[in-house]
Amino acid sequence: MNLHNADIEISAVDKKQYPKKGYMEFAFAGRSNVGKSSMINKLLNRKSLARVSGTPGKTITINFYNIDDTIYLVDLPGYGYAKRPKSDVEKWGKMMEDYLSNRKELVQTILLVDSRHKPTKDDITMADWIRHYHERLIVVATKTDKLKKSEIEGNLELIWETLQMGEDDILVPFNTKDDEGKYTVWDMIEMMRAGQMSEE
Ligand SMILES: Nc1nc2c(ncn2[C@@H]2O[C@H](COP(=O)(O)OP(=O)(O)OP(=O)(O)O)[C@@H](O)[C@H]2O)c(=O)[nH]1
Ligand SMILES: [Mg+2]
């Protein structure tokens, strides 16, 4: 999968709007501003297919990107945005729960955390949620270009420890400035799609 036909299929505010084609789905969760939309753009070599926001967390939607009429990449609404009203936090919770717990097409939720910081309480909750619904926790540590080379390993260790990751789990460093993380994420998605990652 190197060159992709990709388009937004639906920006859903309600589960009735979720796609009905049955393609496998790979979803990205994480704090507002962690880089979910940027990562989708990077994976697809597109500048602004997924909207990258200066003002985080404005609308609570689940965005489905149709990739080659084969899979969906799913941009989940971000959390941890301080200025969000309580009613929005509730809406967020209901939408996430609806999607994560009932969606048969969902193969894996991938958690994005900022490589510069220790994962937050919300990140830990999200990691637990993912572990509850999937066999393994896959975490992408974003914005590694903002770290010194010498800092990366230690920060990855801190993320690994804080999220209590185990031997079946996967942690991938990622940034939008080079292509390394992009290839690793695509390889993972390809393997999951082919069902080759379950029994290693
Ligand atoms: N330097 C650097 N900046 C990044 C990287 N990824 C994202 N950013 C920046 O981080 C900011 C937030 O990125 P988004 O992709 O909008 O984050 P998001 O997780 O989709 O945020 P919400 O949609 O609000 O949940 C933007 O200013 C991006 O340009 C990265 O790898 N390196
Ligand atoms: Mg976004």
Explained architecture:
- The protein has one domain: 3-Layer(aba) Sandwich (Rossmann fold).
- It has a seven-stranded mixed β-sheet with strand order 1-3-4-2-5-6-7, with helices on both faces.
- It is α/β, with parallel strands linked by helices and 200 residues long.
- The model has no long low-confidence stretch (mean pLDDT 91).
- The two termini are 22 Å apart.
- The protein is built from five helices and seven strands.
- Helices cover 33% and strands 22% of the residues.
- The protein has helices at 36-43, 86-102, 121-133, 149-162, 180-193, and strands at 6-12, 24-30, 62-67, 71-75, 106-114, 138-142, 170-173.
- It binds guanosine-5'-triphosphate and magnesium ion (MG).
- Magnesium ion binds next to helix 1.
Tell me the layout of helices and strands.
Layout: E1 6-12, E2 24-30, H1 36-43, E3 62-67, E4 71-75, H2 86-102, E5 106-114, H3 121-133, E6 138-142, H4 149-162, E7 170-173, H5 180-193
Bound molecules: guanosine-5'-triphosphate and magnesium ion.
Task: Give the gist of this structure.
The chain is 33% helix and 22% strand. The chain is an alpha/beta fold and 200 residues long.
